[in-house]
Design goal:
Blueprint lengths: L1 H13 L2 H9 L9 H34 L3 H10 L13 H25 L11 H11 L8 H22 L3 H18 L6 H11 L2 H6 L2 H22 L13
Length: 254
């Protein structure tokens, strides 16, 4: 109603008596109405027409917006439908592939474990950490994966080890915070350096939550067990994965 009053007030000053008389002369036939009555009818009609047109445009605009934006229920449904997946699982590997994966993993872990429990048993250094088990899955069992290539194996472990040690030394009073920072930052750095290697996350976490023996190593942890251990496993991967004619490793170096 306020909109109509404003429109009428504005147009009352715009439409003059002369305008109305001129309009009447252009109409065929006789019009029995005073100038004031005609003006009042015109202003009411114009105001209501303007208001209706504005309301219609607003409704159309709102309907367009709602049509373009899915409803909350539709958005939630779409979110959960993503969890269904769309592709079937890949086919299984043959017995030959399984056997060579087993041989590679056995020899790779055996090498670092032997050094740890025999050659270094009387020292304060170690050679094997839990994340090497995850690396074995990749570099012996999924050798075509970009995450299993030498750049990722060595770079991912080294970057993650440094980040893990820094996180522990800076936030050792809050282990939960140091753990979260170590893993999250390691992932970000591996992404940025194209060295993403999932076991690297474990390498960073071990530097924070590992035993006192791990903590005592300080930055030496980056060199041993991480650096040298990963290098030993890489040498075994190069030697074993290229024996079968159907297998080739690596796919790339840099």
């Amino acid at each position: 109603m306020n909109d109509i009053k404003n429109i009428k007030k504005y147009n009352a000053n715009v439409v003059s008596d002369e305008d109305i008389l001129q309009a009447m002369t252009e109409m065929s036939g006789y019009v029995d109405i005073t100038l004031e009555d005609f003006k009042e009818i015109y202003l009411h009609a114009y105001a209501y027409a303007h208001n209706n047109i504005s309301s219609k445009k607003t409704a159309e605009q709102l309907s367009t917006v709602y049509a373009e934006q899915p409803s909350l229920v539709s958005g939630i449904k779409s979110y959960f439908l993503k969890m269904k997946g769309s592709d079937k699982s890949p086919p299984g590997v043959g017995i030959t592939e399984i056997c060579w994966s087993w041989v590679g993993a056995f020899l790779g872990i055996a090498a670092v474990a032997y050094c740890n429990f025999n050659l270094l048993s009387t020292t304060d250094t170690i050679m094997i950490i839990g994340s090497f088990g995850a690396s074995a899955v990749l570099i012996y069992g999924a050798i075509k994966s970009p995450l299993a290539q030498p750049r990722n194996l060595i770079g991912g472990h080294l970057f993650s080890a440094v980040i893990g040690v820094v996180s522990y030394q800076c936030f050792s009073s809050s282990i939960w915070l140091a753990s979260a920072l170590a893993v999250a930052t390691a992932i970000a750095v591996m992404h940025a350096t194209k060295t993403l290697h999932p076991p690297g996350g474990a390498t960073a976490l071990i530097a924070v939550i590992g035993s006192q023996r791990i903590h005592d190593l300080g930055y030496f942890y980056v060199l041993m067990p991480v650096g040298i251990g990963a290098l030993i496993m890489l040498v075994v991967a190069l030697a074993v994965n290229n024996i079968p004619r159907a297998r080739k490793y690596p796919e790339f170096w840099l």
